[in-house]
């Protein structure tokens, strides 16, 4: 058994297949992959890694298995999947996932090719088939819901861990109550009777963390800058998309600085000389049809829009970044709870959840970013190209250099 001191869960005990997997290269690589991508440029203490998070998921999975009285081979398989569930992440976690997916066809939970070598040897030595672990990580089957589902331990850990490391209080949830309330009913993972409010608390935490951390405007700006720099690196053909996907954060930083087309943006990120918002448009400003078109647009179409805006504004194309947020949604809102002896979907039972679903729509933003001295020209050009007519969509951010998150930023649109 190995005992590890954790900042969130105190002492984590890793044993059996988990202890054997701990020092394999795919797991140790996660020490060099940031959990929140570029969010540390907003919250300086948000420098935790996928390795810490994976340990957290492992210990929460262990506790969930105990409460559910799952033992033997199933227990070992879920523990292994919990520790390995993030080994497919690219550098900076989710930041580059869509970019690389369009070039490789692989998401971060497609880990079949990584469950080889030393990892496969360890799994097989513990009578666990690597294919079974790949399925659990993808959320397949009854036990896969514990790793990747509406009530998974992955979500429980990252909410409290991200809140802890950013200093934002909104991700606090009652993990012990959630774990104790888990039940399998006809193969579905649900919350036991009397836990509607427990489920609501999970959704409230996620809904508040979205605008304050995950979709904070500076996080989104830096994410888009890193994506553009990586696009230029891939266009240089110095490395392939599959190679980038297996890098860690430091390796990608070096590669970006050495690629001529990527270096300017890489230096800006390293020195925190960030682009600013030229457009920050609400869902209603963009319109449902136009927002839908942009959300569904292929990367090539977004690049064409950026080029058109740049030409109209008289700036270089790399000085215009269009950032289309994913459609408003809450996967957790499909959570099932037992009420009066029957299983019900949470939105049907909770007015709080229905309100949160509406809040997700209100938090959606379309962003267009540019260097500080180009925001005015780019903003005007973007309004014309995108067909926006709401003056409030344009944000002037030229009065001060990029700064870190303040309380006034929480949920608001301050510059």
Please tell me about this protein's structure.
The strands form four sheets. The chain has a three-stranded antiparallel sheet with strand order 5-9-6, sandwiched between helices. It has a two-stranded antiparallel sheet with strand order 1-2. It has helices at 17-21, 25-29, 50-68, 72-84, 97-104, 117-125, 130-137, 141-147, 153-166, 175-181, 196-214, 217-235, 241-245, 249-258, 263-271, 283-286, 288-296, 299-313, 346-349, 351-363, 375-386, and strands at 2-6, 10-14, 182-185, 188-191, 276-282, 321-324, 336-339, 342-345, 365-370. Mean pLDDT is 91; it is low at 398-402 and 410-415. 47% of the residues are buried. It is globular, with a radius of gyration of 22 Å. Among the domains are: 2-167, Hypothetical protein af1432; 275-327 and 364-399. The protein has 415 residues and is mostly helical. The chain is built from 21 helices and nine strands. Helices cover 52% and strands 10% of the residues. Helix 3 runs antiparallel to helix 4 and helix 18 packs across helix 21 (375-386). Residues 50-159 form the HD domain. GO terms for molecular function: dGTPase activity. InterPro entries: dGTPase-like (IPR050135), HD/PDEase_dom (IPR003607), HD_assoc_2 (IPR045509), HD_domain (IPR006674). Keywords: Hydrolase. It comes from Halodesulfurarchaeum formicicum.
């Amino acid at each position: 058994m190995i005992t590890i001191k954790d900042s969130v869960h105190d002492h984590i005990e890793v044993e059996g297949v988990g202890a054997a997997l701990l020092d394999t290269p795919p797991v140790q690589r996660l020490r060099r992959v940031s959990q929140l991508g570029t969010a540390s440029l907003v919250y300086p203490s948000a420098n935790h890694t996928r390795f810490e998070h994976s340990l957290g998921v492992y210990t929460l999975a262990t506790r969930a298995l105990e409460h559910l009285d799952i033992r033997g081979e199933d227990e070992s398989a879920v523990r292994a999947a919990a520790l390995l569930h993030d080994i497919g992440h690219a550098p900076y976690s989710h930041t580059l996932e869509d970019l690389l997916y369009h070039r490789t066809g692989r998401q971060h939970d497609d880990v079949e090719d990584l469950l080889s070598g030393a990892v496969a040897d360890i799994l097989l030595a513990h009578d666990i088939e690597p294919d079974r672990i790949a399925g659990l990580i993808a959320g397949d089957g009854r036990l896969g819901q514990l790793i990747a589902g509406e009530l998974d331990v992955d979500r429980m850990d990252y909410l409290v861990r991200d809140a802890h490391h950013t200093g934002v209080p909104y991700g606090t949830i009652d993990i012990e109550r959630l774990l104790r309330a888990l039940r399998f009913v006809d193969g579905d993972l649900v919350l036991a009777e009397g836990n509607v409010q427990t489920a609501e608390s999970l959704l409230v935490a996620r809904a508040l963390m979205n605008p304050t951390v995950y979709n904070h405007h500076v996080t989104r700006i830096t994410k888009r800058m890193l994506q553009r720099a990586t696009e230029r690196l891939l266009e240089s053909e110095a490395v392939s998309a599959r190679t980038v996907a297996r890098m860690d954060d430091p390796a990608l930083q070096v590669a970006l600085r050495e690629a001529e087309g990527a270096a300017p943006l890489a230096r800006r990120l390293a020195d925190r000389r960030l682009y600013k918002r030229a457009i920050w448009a609400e869902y209603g400003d963009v319109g449902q049809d136009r927002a839908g078109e942009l959300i569904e647009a292929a990367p090539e179409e977004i690049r064409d829009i950026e080029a058109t805006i740049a030409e109209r504004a008289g700036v270089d194309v790399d000085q215009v970044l269009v950032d289309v947020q994913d459609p408003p949604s809450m996967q957790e809102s499909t959570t099932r709870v037992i009420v009066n002896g029957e299983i019900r979907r949470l939105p049907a039972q909770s007015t709080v959840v229905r309100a949160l679903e509406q809040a997700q729509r209100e938090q959606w933003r379309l962003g267009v970013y540019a260097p500080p001295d180009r925001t005015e020209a780019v903003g005007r050009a973007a309004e014309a190209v995108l067909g926006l007519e709401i003056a409030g969509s344009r944000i002037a951010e030229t009065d001060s250099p990029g700064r870190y998150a303040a309380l006034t930023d929480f949920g608001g649109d301050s510059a």
